[in-house]
Amino acid sequence: xxxxxxxxxxxxxxxxxxxxxxxxxxxxxxxxxxxxxxxxxxxxxxxxxxxxxxxxxxxxxxxxxxxxxxxxxxxxxxxxxxxxxxxxxxxxxxx
Length: 95
What we know:
By secondary structure, the protein is α+β, with helices and mostly antiparallel strands. It is built from 3 helices and 4 strands, in the order βαββααβ. The model has no long low-confidence stretch (mean pLDDT about 95).
C-alpha cells in the first residue's frame, strides 16, 4: 500500500537548507519516492504557520521509513537540522 511523507517546514537558514534539498531529492527517489508537492502556493486553515510544505509518495510505508533511515537521507538531514523547524509524518494511503 502506498504511503505519503508530509512535511511542514519553517526554514531558518536558507543556504544550509538548500544543501539538504539538493541531497534529499536523490535519496527519496532511490527509495521509489516522487514529489507530489514541493513548496508552492498554500493556505493555512489550521495549525502552526510553516512556509514550506512537501508531499512525497512512496510505494509503501516501509519504503518511506527505510528512506528516512537510509545513510543518504540522514546525510541530507544533517543539513536541515539547525537550519529548519520541521514536522514530518508518514501516512499510509487507503486502498
